[in-house]
């Protein structure tokens, strides 16, 4: 089991410096959430790791080797994105066969289970699948290939709520059976909050958070109550945002709280991952 090391990645499109200096390490057998506002370069980063485009500088390393143009290493990765190309006219079941040959094996038993659970017609041509079923087809591929690193770029695109729930529960059960590393890019943050163990946030071309989710959320609170009490309580704390509801103030605080909160008249609740993300990356008022 190997770590994937991403070091000082930079990428520019014409004069737009999208990725300025991206560094992080993916540990084996962990589920990551890669979060960022629209256009920050999440897909670009996944495409660099998966050899679909090149960085201007920096390295991505697995077992001491660069992943660039490295076929042996790339066989250990799978990127599910909107840009997969299959020969025209290919049916879903032919694609499974084709990928099985390309990657050496395919989990046919699990794919049969997933095909039945999602109701995919494997005799349908890929080009004719609906948006949701195209996503389902790609998810089945991602979960059945023998790879160690699975990168899922918008994995629930076009899926209805039932199929999204089904996917999340299948992800957890296949992860338990055969742990591997998943990196999930999505804007539906609350839906993956309970799945991910580690969060990476990209903002303005750099990684601004690289944290264990439980540790991070244990430090993220909403303090609410009468304004004077909230102001008193939050003095010296890192307040990401304040909201008002009539006389009540809510302060979104990141960091350790004072040890003794018994005498305070404020109420303290845990923030949601989505709220934390929004307030960490909000540009309004800066
Ligand atoms: N092939 C390309 N040529 C020129 N610009 C590109 C290209 N690919 C991406 N970009 C630009 O790079 C920036 C990052 O795009 P990217 O798709 O990586 O962001 P993202 O974080 O995945 O966004 P979203 O959350 O909206 O999907 C955007 O400004 C985009 O327009």
TrEMBL record:
One of its GO terms (molecular function) is ATP binding. The keyword S-adenosyl-L-methionine does not apply. It comes from the Bacteria. Pfam families: ABC_tran. The keyword NAD does not apply. Keywords: ATP-binding, Nucleotide-binding. Signal peptide: none annotated. Residues 4-229 form the ABC transporter domain. CDD domains: ABC_DR_subfamily_A. Gene3D superfamilies: P-loop containing nucleotide triphosphate hydrolases. InterPro entries: AAA+_ATPase (IPR003593), ABC_transporter-like_ATP-bd (IPR003439), P-loop_NTPase (IPR027417). PANTHER family: ABC TRANSPORTER, ATP-BINDING PROTEIN (PTHR43158:SF5), SKFA PEPTIDE EXPORT ATP-BINDING PROTEIN SKFE (PTHR43158). This is Abc transporter, atp-binding protein. It comes from Lapidilactobacillus dextrinicus DSM 20335.
């Amino acid at each position: 089991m190997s770590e994937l090391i991403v070091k000082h990645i930079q990428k520019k499109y014409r004069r737009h410096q999208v990725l300025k200096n991206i560094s992080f390490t993916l540990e084996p057998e962990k589920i990551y959430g890669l979060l960022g506002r629209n256009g920050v370069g999440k897909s670009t980063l996944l495409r660099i790791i998966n050899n679909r485009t090149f960085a201007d500088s920096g390295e991505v390393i697995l077992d001491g080797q660069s992943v660039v143009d490295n076929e042996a290493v790339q066989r250990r990765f799978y990127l599910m994105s909107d840009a997969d190309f299959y020969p025209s006219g290919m049916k879903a079941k032919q694609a499974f066969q084709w990928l099985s040959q390309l990657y050496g094996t395919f989990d046919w038993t699990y794919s049969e289970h997933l095909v039945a659970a999602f109701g995919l017609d494997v005799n349908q041509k890929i080009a004719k699948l609906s948006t949701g079923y195209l996503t389902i087809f790609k998810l089945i591929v991602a979960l059945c290939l023998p790879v160690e690193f699975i990168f899922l770029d918008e994995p629930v695109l076009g899926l209805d709520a039932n199929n999204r729930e089904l996917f999340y529960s299948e992800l957890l059960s296949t992860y338990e059976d055969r742990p591997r590393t998943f990196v999930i890019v999505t804007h539906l943050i609350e839906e993956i909050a309970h799945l991910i163990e580690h969060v990476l946030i990209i903002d303005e071309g750099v990684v601004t958070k690289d944290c264990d989710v439980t540790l991070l959320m244990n430090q993220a609170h909403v303090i609410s109550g009468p304004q004077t009490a909230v102001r008193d309580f939050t003095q010296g704390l890192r307040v990401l945002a304040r909201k008002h509801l009539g006389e009540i103030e809510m302060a979104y605080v990141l960091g350790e709280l004072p040890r003794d909160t018994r005498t305070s008249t404020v109420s303290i609740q845990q923030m949601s991952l989505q709220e934390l993300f929004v307030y960490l990356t909000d540009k309004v008022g800066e």
